[in-house]
Design brief:
By secondary structure, this protein is α+β, with helices and mostly antiparallel strands. It has 2 domains: 64 residues; 148 residues, Immunoglobulin-like (Sandwich), CATH 2.60.40. It contains 1 helix and 10 strands; from the N terminus they run H-E-E-E-E-E-E-E-E-E-E. The relative contact order is 0.18.
Length: 214
């Protein structure tokens, strides 16, 4: 009777251990599945980004242009909704050169509207940086909150950089004429050399496009 009671007393711990082993195994499989799925998603996103970058480089090589925007000549965006895109800049110099990028809103299609959320007339900076390296878009006039405004590009290379367009709610729904200006450091200097820059009206290259805000 004592032996039987002792054997019965061992049944619960053994059962608990078996259940614990099954639970750990199941949890491990779930974690592995999640990791695999997340890894696959990351690979797909990376592959898509690589495809976009390769296409931009190809476009610049085929057309001979110095600057390109992945979003095209007409960009449609809803207020408050972020839109990711890429810019491509070509360096034709025989050495590494520093470039700066400035995005401007020139004018809206509607006469009584303005680019500025405060109602200020005229063209305004909405993303990137002026060639002085100091003046940047602020507040509701910052339409492109994420981008690298300064690019160090190797000789003969094409730099493709990500950016995000996100327009504040104070901006009116309209079609806006935009301009992207690319500035090249004087004497073809690198960014580390803290080079001098041309004035704002002397860009290396420019491109105009439209943003349609809804």
């Amino acid at each position: 009777m004592k032996l039987f009671s002792h054997k019965k007393g061992l049944e619960l711990p053994i059962t608990a251990i078996v259940v614990l082993i099954i639970a750990i195994t199941f949890l491990s499989l779930v974690i592995l599945f999640i990791k695999k799925g997340f890894g696959t998603s990351q690979e797909l996103v990376f592959a898509e980004i690589t495809k976009i970058k390769d296409q931009l480089r190809k476009n610049l090589e085929e057309t001979g242009e110095l600057f390109v925007i992945s979003a095209g000549a007409e960009i449609q965006v809803k207020k408050g909704t972020p839109l990711d895109f890429y810019i491509g800049v070509r360096n034709t110099a025989p050495k590494k050169v520093c470039y700066r990028v400035a995005f401007r809103c020139l004018k809206p299609f509607t006469p009584d509207n303005t680019c500025s959320s405060s109602g200020t007339q005229g063209a305004i900076l909405v993303g990137g940086v002026e060639p002085d390296g100091l003046t940047r878009a602020i507040g509701g006039d910052k339409w492109i909150p994420r981008m690298n405004p300064e690019l160090d590009i190797p000789s003969g290379d094409i730099e493709v950089s990500p950016a995000t367009l996100q327009i504040a709610g104070a901006v009116k729904a309209d079609t806006y004429l935009m301009e992207a200006d690319i500035y090249k450091a004087l004497n073809d200097e690198e960014c580390e050399a803290q080079p001098n820059w041309p004035t704002a009206d002397e860009p290396y290259t420019s491109k105009r496009f439209h943003i349609i805000v809804s």
